[in-house]
From TrEMBL:
This is Murein DD-endopeptidase MepM/ murein hydrolase activator NlpD. It comes from the Bacteria. The lineage of its organism: Bacteria, Bacillati, Actinomycetota, Thermoleophilia, Solirubrobacterales. Residues 310-327 have a biased composition (Pro residues). It holds the Pfam family Peptidase_M23.
Amino acid sequence: MRAAALALLLAVGAWLLAGEPADARNKLKVKATPATVAPGSSVRVVVTGTSRTRCALTVRADRAGSRPSVRRRVARQSRLAIPASSAAGVRIVTVRCGTQTARTRFTVAAATAAPPAPSPAADEHETYGELPIDINEIAGYTVGDGLGGGEYTTRIPFTNGTRIRVSQGANGGYSHGNAYTRNAVDLPAALGTPVRAGFSGVVAAAVGGCPTTTQWGCNRGFGNFVLLKNVDGTCALHAHLTAINVSPGQPAARYTQLGTVGTSGSSTGAHLHYDRIDCASRASLPWSFEEAGNPREGAWVTSSNEPAPAVAPPTPDPAPAPAPPSAPARRPITVDNRVTNGMSMREDSSPARLTTKAWIRCGTRGCNIGGTERGSGGTYDAAVCQTSGERTTNGNDSSAADDGNPERFESTRYYGVRLHDGTFGFISEVWIRASDRGGLGLPGC
């Protein structure tokens, strides 16, 4: 009798399991650990219940009207860096994989005194603080006219022909999430690989003192590093070096060997951490490689770096008659204020406008210029120069449906616009019609 009852129970259980909907047996879940984190640390995000290898993730504050502060694609296990400047409070994490959506939350604790530098664990990644340099000493180094890469550009800082795959790009979730690292890239290479100057400048800092093997937190995590100062007042950062081959104040022509690749400081393997920073504030700045733009994680890049051409001494000539001054280039540009809507396009709900900085999200950063709003088809009468700034896109980075739209466009190029009343401001070429993109042959701003 007992055997018959047991068989009946097993049969009912099997029937219930077979009749359970597939999505109930494979329901999307997301978990963020630890539940409470400090500013400047990181949180691990684990996604289960899906066969997809990449999903869309957003993070926003738990308050009415808050907008996402993070939008990115994530694997089933990812780590999010929490900027040191983050305000305390609850954050809501939303993950979307296809048609399934899951949410979780974690809390950012109030900032406290900086804890001792952590010891590296097997699953930790690099963590950085403020670069340990004397900004007054660096301000005293001057760069000769005509040296340096224009518009925050540089050659890839390796020997000509070196091919490298980017292991972490700008805003990378492992360690490139705070004000000092958000535009950096990590370039893996064998220990001892020569690191070469990507432009001509002056060595502003050559800071060693770290072991050639990993020592977490040494020199605020950057390990042994070299700063190369450009004529525009910015500095190129070369970090985690094994050897340093230059000294502060030394002029360094393009292709000069600055040091060798290592894994000093907070590092989990041999690579070059490269960034362009403001020499005074030490903040990370938008920049690009001449060969490859600002590459994303996983992209392959090949160096075309080479010595700068020698400058022949000028041959004196009789002074020519002065030429009349030429008017600066002025190019009319037409606005295209549309954004992606799946595979189609729609007019954005907010008009295009000029800004005082080559930045995005100026509505919350106080850099919009009132009275310069335009919709699609509107014109700005005088684009006079071009420069590089923060990445802009007319698509939705968290929407897989937009990825195949042929009119989806992104760029770091901005036009400098001078209006008839003398107003000057910037606008991303993303919000300009396609035929007016590409720089239009305008000089740098």
